[in-house]
C-alpha cells in the first residue's frame, strides 16, 4: 500500500519523543494489518475508483473504514470522498449499484448499494463531495461548503484517526495529520486547533466521548481542555443530533469511558444534567454510596446481563442501558438526612421516572423508548423487601403484570442494581431474586401471567349485570382484574357470584 510523503511522523511532538521507538513498531504492525484488510475490502473500492477516474474525478476511501482497517476490522459499509459534484456522483453510482439514494444530497452525500449475490456479501457505499462544515452562531444546523482537495477535506474531519484516506484506484495511503501515529497511541486529537474544530462543529465534542466509548481511546489534553472551555457551545446543536451521538455512545462496548468524558468536560451539564447531578448526592461524611459511581456500575452490570441475539434481551439494548444509567436520577432531589445520621431517598423512583421522561423527551427520543425507560425506572425498587418476607401469589402476579413486556429487562435492571461489596448481602439478594424468578416461571406455566385477563369479558359483564356499553362496564372489568390478580383464575360461576356481590354492594 503506497504512502503519501506526508503520511507518518512517529515523533509527533504531542506524544513525546520517548515513545517514538514503541510507536514506530506499533505503526508498522498497524500498516501490515491494514494491508491485509484493505486487500479483501478493495475489489469494490478499486472498481469505484476506476469508474470515477475514467470520468475525470478523484475518489478516496476515508474515515471509519480506513481507521477500522488498521484496527483489523473490515466493513461492508464504505465511506468515500470525491472531487465529483453530488450530481456527477449520483450518475456514476446509478450505473454501479443495484440501488442508490440522494437523501444526503444537500450535504454532498450520495448512497448506493449492491445486493448480496452468492458468496459475495451486500456492499453499501456513501460518497461525499470534498467539503468543509461550520456552524452559524445563530443556527442549529451546519453550513456546508464544498471543497476541491482531499487534504482540505481531511482537515475538516473530527479527529486525526478519522482523517486518514486511501486514494483509489492506486491504493495510496494519505495521512497528513499523523492519524496513524495517534491510532497507535490510542489518542483522539483534532487535525486542526481543537477550539477551531469544535467551534466549526460543536457536535465533534460529543463524538470525542462517543469514540472513547467505542474504541477506548483517550482524548488528547488540548482537545479535552477545549471541550471544557466550549462545552456550552453544544447547545447550538439540534437535540436530535445530540441524541444520536448519545445513543451511539451508550450502545458502544465501553459506555462508561464516554460518559466519564461527558461529565469531566462539562458536556453532560448541557446534554444529560441528571448524570453529574448524581455526584452531588454524596454527603460530606460519605454515609451512603456515590450515586454517580453506583449508576455507572449498574450500567456495566446490566450490560453483562444482556443476552445473545436469540436471547430474552439481545445486546446492546438501548432501553435497558438508559434505564440503568437513569434509575437513580431522582435521588439528588429526594435526599433527606434523618435522625441518627442516616440518609433517605423516599420515592426517588417516582421522581426519577419523571426526570427520565422529561430528559428523554427533550432529547427527542421516540415515545416507545421514553415510556419503556420511564416505566423501568419507576419499577426498579419494586423487588426490594421480597427477601424479608415471602410475597403472596397476588404480589407476584402484580409484579409481572405491572412490568408487562418489560419483565425481562426489569429482571436484569434489578439484578444489576446490587452493587454492595458485602458478599453475604449480595448472595442473599441474588438468591431472593432467583426465588422470585422461579415463582414467576411456575405461575406463568399455570396461569399464563403474560396475558392475564379477567375471568369474564365485557360481553359477559353486560349480560350478567343487565347493562349496556358504557363507563360502568370498564369499572366492573377493573374490579374483576383486581380479583384475578388477588386470587388467580376463577371458574365462571365463582367470578359471576363475585361480580354480582360487588355490584349489589356498590348500588347500596
UniProtKB/TrEMBL annotation:
- Alphabetized GO MF terms: metal ion binding; nucleotide binding; nucleotidyltransferase activity; tRNA binding
Keywords assigned by UniProt? Coiled coil, Magnesium, Metal-binding, Nucleotide-binding, Nucleotidyltransferase, Transferase, tRNA processing
Biological process GO terms, please?
A: tRNA processing
Cofactor list: Mg(2+)
**InterPro entries annotated for this entry?**
Bact_CCA-adding_enz_type3_sf, HD/PDEase_dom, HD_domain, HDIG_dom, NT_sf, PolA_pol_head_dom, PolyA_RNA-bd, tRNA_adenylyltransferase
> Boundaries of each HD domain copy?
291-413
Do you know which SMART domains this protein is assigned to? HDc
Keyword Lipid biosynthesis found:
no
Q: Name one Pfam family in it.
A: HD
Tell me where on the tree of life, at the top rank, the source sits. Answer: Bacteria
Sections of the chain in a coiled coil: 426-453
Q: What is this protein called?
A: Poly(A) polymerase
Q: Which organism is it from?
A: Sanguibacter gelidistatuariae
